[in-house]
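User: I'm writing a tutorial on reading structure tokens. Could you give me a worked example: one chain, its sequence, then its tokens, then a sentence or two explaining what the tokens reveal?
Assistant: Sure. Here is the example chain.
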Amino acid sequence: MYEVFIGGWSNSKSVIRKNRTKPDVAEVDTPDILSADEMRGFWIRWDDGVISVGKEGESSAFLTYADPEPFGIGYFGVCTGWGASGEWLIEAICVGGHDRYVNPSAPPPPSGVTDIGDFCWCDASGGVIPPGAVEGGKDDESLYVGRAYHEGALLPGKVKPGHAVCYVAWGGGEHGKTEYQVLCGCNPVWVPTTGNNIPHNAIPAGETEDGEPLYVGRVQHEDTVTIGKVQPSHSVCYIPYGGAEVAFPEYEIMVQQN
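And here are its predicted structure tokens:
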């Protein structure tokens, strides 16, 4: 874990501490940075293993730490110390950005429906599951809808937190990727289909190395519900399972609710 202290040690310094051990990994003198007479604002950000701390209204940080061995942040907590009071504003930033898709190969949508909305794919790694992640499968633990790059393709697959990877199917094999994206912030539904019958509101989630759109599918297999990729030109849903890429002509596909 990382700890950030602002105005500690009798309001004399601020530090960043890793794994509750000393010495502190970053420290700076900040005399009287806090005040009993006025509310003062601060921000804390982290990205790619760099933690930065700054004052409200100032873009530059007064305290930073670049971890040479960073780890994913999945949880955080905030508190004041020694009877003080404070207010907290938590901003959820989706690093992966938003994708707005229109299904180019599907039939025209019903009247009043022009596309299937915004979807947030959040960057993650090492088994981290961002807030609002979409759960789509189950084996000995919950599986989440993810995607990862492999051999020039962006492939939908299953994020398995216990293995700290996103598994994708490609070229007959199952491939575990430690860096991936997780679908967040939406409530899709799953509908049964077969072959290349892609519903108009199916959610595109990637593409092959040749540029063919891929969709998110899932199947029941070996007492699991496993997430994989639907490739329309092959008329199947491929799932990564047991080290192999397994094809199913009957499957469920993820769609946006109307």
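What the tokens reveal: The first strand starts at residue 2 and ends at 7. DSSP finds one helix and 21 strands in the chain.
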